[in-house]
Amino acid sequence: MAESTHLSHHISQNRSSKAVFARLAQPFIGSSRPPSSSGLAGGASGHAALSAPSNSAPTSAPNVLSPRTVRYTLNCPVLALSAHVDGEEVVVAGREILRILRVGYNEISEVATLRQSGEQRKHFQYDVKWGTLHQKNTIATAGTNGTICLYDAKVGLLDRQLREHGRQVHKIAFNPVDGRLLLSASQDGTIKLWDLREKKSRLTFSGRADAVRDVQFNAGNAVEFAAAFDNGTIQRWDYRKDNIYERKINAHNGPVFTVDWHPDGKHCASGGRDRTVKVWDLYSEDPRRKAKHTIATMCSVSRIAWRPLKNTTELATCAINNDHRVHVWDLKRPYIPARIMDEHLASTTGILWKDDEIVWSCSKDMTFVQNDVVFATQPINSLTHAAFSWGPTSDFTFATQPRGRVRRSGPSTGRFESDEDLIRDDRRRLGRSSSFKGLKPALSVLETLTDKFISTQSAARITISSIFDTEAFRYLAQKYVIDLSGTTGGAPMSLAQACASNARAAMRAQQYRTGQTWKILQMALDWEDKMVERGNRAIAGSIVSAAGGTLVARRALGLGTEQAHRSGAASPQQGLVPETPQGAATPTQIRAGLADEELLPLPPPPLTFGTSLGSSTTSMDGARSISNGNSGIEDQILGPPGANSEVKSQLNGNGNGVGMGGSAESSAEHPTGNQIGVGPVNVGNGNNNGYYNHPYQGIGSVATVAATDATPPGSYGNGNGNVVGVDVGDSVEKRAGRERKYSLASEATSSSYGTAGFGGRESEGEDDAGEAERRMAAQGMEAIQEEDPMANSSILRQNVPDIRTPRTGEWHDGGESEEEREARPWNPQNLVEKFTDWYCERGDVQMCATVVLLLAGRVRVDERRSDEWVEGYIQLLRRFKLFVTAAEIVKTTQIEGLREAGGNQTFAKVGCGRCYKPIAQNGSWFCERCLQIQDGCVICRETVKGRWTMCQTCSHGGHDNCLREWFFGEKMDSCAAVGCDHDCLPRNHSDP
Amino acid sequence: MSGRSPNSSQANYIQFSTGHDDLVHDVAYDFYGRRMATVSSDQRLKVFDLNDEGEWVISESFRAHDASINRVIWGPPEHGQIIATCSYDRTVRIWEEQEMEPKGSNLRWKRQFQMTSESHTAVYDISFPPMSACSASGTSTGLKLAFISTDGTVHIYECREPQDLTHWIAVDVIHTLPAALGKEIEVSFCLDFCPSRWGGEQLVVGAMDKAQVYRHNRLGKFRPAEELKGHRGLVRDVSWAAGMGRSYHLIATACKDGRVRIFKLTTGAGNLAAPKSKYLNSSGGSGRRPRPGVGAGLGADLRGQDELLTVVEPEGGFGGEDERWHVDLIADFDDHHSDVWRVAWNATGTVLSSAGDDGNIRLWKAAFSGEFQCLSVIASHRSSSRWEEDQVTFDD
């Protein structure tokens, strides 16, 4: 024990040197302490356990770097404790126990058990105090029955009892100067001063303020004491004057549970049920009686103990319930506890500073714990010094401050990274306290508290425009065209026009890059559209040329295009339809059938026409078509197979064409078509690039007759036929893998479909195509051709693919044309993907969402992503309170979820007119809170159970009919409500 | 976003005083960016309004808790002016503005509900899931809130009728720690909901030195998913970036080991683009979806490679049981040279801010290469805040 005593003494002298010393001394001490010394603790060693953070082994060997936290478990809840003046022993009291413990550096042992009288046993020992000077061997306890028992600690026996209080004695206190004087505070509202040499109490003080919860002598002026009362007051008394208090302060709301004199003898801390600790100057002449300091804690304060340092600003508190921890507060920083010791599992009932670093505490969890403050948790370490938040966009607000002590932290999650921290911590504290020495002793530190914590957090709001250009966003949100049809205001326009418009807007907002993007998009769309057109022409031209056999492609272009166009646009339905039946039998017809299905959903002829053309045509118009024509011719010459196939196809085409021209011809041709039909497929496989060319030529050569026949009716008709044929071939080739059997039909379908979707902005697009394909497959060659016109139109569409195919080598059907298109970096699909990726990466949802909204029908965008863009955009718009634009988008968008939400989640909340609480069921007229029906109609007083009409100015209203009658029937001018003179319906403005 | 002029990274910097008596621990903008709430150790909650000059003007200040307030967040705007706070006093409190009460009166913000962590432990963090995620999970208009307390337990409460904020019920509990912690140990907990509604509710939780993603299973309960590995100290903060249609997720963490880390979550199979993810949730009705057996015929080919997963974890992730995310650590900065305490993404998930014990706030942004770089440093020298232009120039 000597070693440890010496050590602890040393520690109390100089903490920082302690750490150093301790590290050196540790092995020395450890070895010097005989193993049996822990045995000295006897049974207690079993209870004593080091609750060390992480690395300290639960041995009794001293380890200075681990907390000196020692726990001793008793067999009964402990309600109070008191230390011997020498500081080595403590008496703990509970209902059934009254024991003296010896607390060593690292272990706790039981010294004696005081025998309690039988009667006393029945009552809780609410307080225990060890006598001070002159009475070092006296232990006094206060019980719930109002009896004060005096024990002789040496003998361990009850000495005598003081029975004067009628009710429970809450607290007792020995006079620090004269231990023979004892104060007792009782529930009966009195404080009694006992001189232990006398039989009876010497004085009785009545605070006239309800029960007395606590009483404590002023160590600085031992004739005075402070008392805490249930009614929230604290009083300073001088026991030489027993009739009236010296000072009374209304300190708390609710009972005051505890008072503790500051070592300066001038100030007193009080704590109570109102969860605050307040520090008072009990000698202040200031009539306002304001607390010098206030600490707001979480729970009712049951005990307060100032840290025994000169000019201390720290105090320890514990709570009655809910919080089992012991807090150490520093008045310099009243909001954040300096230390927290969380050692108990139930309410802490007593706290006591053994010295300025060790806190003894006892608890209802039947334990007595020695806590080392230096090792206690510092809450500030787990509180951030920086805070910030992002506004909707470029706004950023922060408050930050460097932490006082910047630590380089390691992987450890322990409370301390290293002992350097400890040392520094101590130095800091010592440095602080040493600065107090400069103060005049008379002036309490509590008066000045010069180094009170002041938050130096600097707070600011920053707008980082480079991250998000708010102005531009607002501007563009309002200017961007998101809807072509003009339903959201503005004139209907084409896609390219919309892009151009958006480009202008972006430029004006100085978003040059975005503007360029829109321009590029516009150009891409324009180009595509043009290609479609050219494609038509080319086809037509080629057809013509084919028909002519020798015609130059160019010429054909010029002539053919328009013809084709016109025929395509006008004729398909009118001219072709009637003739269809005949063509049905042939392979062409299969296509026709396909086409039918596809066509049905398509928009009116002109639109489909244009679109299909556009989509398919990727190539440069003139040159391509020409080349096609030429090559076609060559191909003819070169490859008979191809020629055949084409012939076949052409035949089909012819058939169609014939159909247009005359039924007889078509019928005649059909047979041929059928015959050839088989062939084309094979051929098709063989030929790749040449194909498209071939058809034309084929017409010229092989199918000449048919072609010729067909030609007369309409050049365009031929063209169609050709195209179809080509498609078939291609489809056979390419699709062979996927769907060989019905390749023709399906292919045709898909191709035509795709084009149609393109041009017509048909949203169904692929699904439908898929269906169509499937159906076609099922039907196979026997496809029913009910509507020739459709077939024709489909053919027309298919023409487009043909034109493209030349380049890529793959052509004709939707899938292929897509591939082809995708090969072009400038095709809208590719552009949109690139653009959205790029802008998305940069968080510009506005751009992404607008592009997606505009081009949704034209390009494919991943649904999930487009959904997020649009939703994110709407969110942003709402954040900017651009609700109109947001609503327009909800209206325009094709994303069902958003549309649904727009429909379902738009609601108005209704509040009760009396209690202002929302009415739970929207549309209800009954407030469940006031249990009353809402005010009814202002005229008939009936509840309005439907539409409520009101004046927006005076907000009086009611039934539609009542108001109508009032204003128009009775020609009243002013409001119907009594006392409301508002002119709801000014006659001069609007007269019915 | 293109800047408008060369000096585009100039920042408009307006200092203000929070008037708090102790450290401000959290700041939160409301949805519209016109109001802001601050909380502090001084137990007060303050609400500021933005005036026309762009300055914050205090609107309300009241004592909201009995201990340091850790976090403040604004509720979804759909339900009015709601603030949630959490504190060391072991409670989460829901505050609602009372429009009819006079401004400046203490009655303006009314405490509508208080959640107490069951084990009497401090509450470290709170988060509202995005509204749309709530509605997508079938629970429709319910307002949810998740909080995590010192025992590592995440509680999720729901207010079924957000018109009346006084009734909340606990709907889910996640135990993030395998065992109870010693009382002496310094702890750190944080959580954040995924701001995207795709894939149902997703939550990233930082518990001690681990960060883990949690995802809803079919029954609408959270189950652990990917772990964000590599932390060598307490995870102080997590922030899940708004997706905004990107094909991946970004999660940033602040760590006591002095690092700011950014994790990138990508789907292994590229499922993001698959159309089948279309509104899975809304069709699920209260989060229940048909058992896999029902659609066996159709789903047979879909399963294939994911079958293993499905078998192993029959109640896999909600709305994407076959979504296994691949986690990449794409950034790991130690520029703070001290504990990092906070990270937050901006609204579009493109700029990350981080703050550490050095008192500096750093902004991080992806360069063209996709690599995150320091955009600027906001130093906290009092009254002499400075801006540093860094190597990263803005897009233009």
Automatic annotation (TrEMBL), chain A:
Keyword flag NADP: no
Keyword Oxidoreductase: no
Biased composition (Low complexity): 46-62, 608-619
WDR59/RTC1-like RING zinc finger domain ranges (all copies): 932-986
WD repeats: from-to residues: 162-204, 249-290
Record keywords: Metal-binding, Repeat, WD repeat, Zinc, Zinc-finger
Biased composition (Basic and acidic residues): 804-815
Region (Disordered): 32-62, 562-586, 598-681, 737-775, 804-825
UniProt protein name: SEA (Seh1-associated) complex subunit
Upper lineage: Eukaryota, Fungi, Dikarya, Ascomycota, Pezizomycotina
Gene name of the encoded protein: RTC1
TrEMBL record, chain B:
Subcellular location as annotated: Nucleus, Nuclear pore complex
Keyword Protein transport in annotation: yes
GO molecular function ontology, one term from the record: hydrolase activity
Keyword Membrane: no
UniProt WD repeat ranges: 17-51, 62-96, 333-365
Predominant location category: nucleus
Keywords recorded for this protein, A-Z: Hydrolase, mRNA transport, Nuclear pore complex, Nucleus, Protein transport, Repeat, Translocation, Transport, WD repeat
InterPro entries membership: Sec13/Seh1_fam, WD40/YVTN_repeat-like_dom_sf, WD40_repeat_dom_sf, WD40_rpt
UniProt cross-references to SUPFAM superfamilies, sorted A to Z: WD40 repeat-like
UniProt family annotation: Belongs to the WD repeat SEC13 family.
Full protein name: Epoxide hydrolase, soluble (SEH)
Protein source organism: Discina gigas
Lineage, highest ranks first: Eukaryota, Fungi, Dikarya, Ascomycota, Pezizomycotina
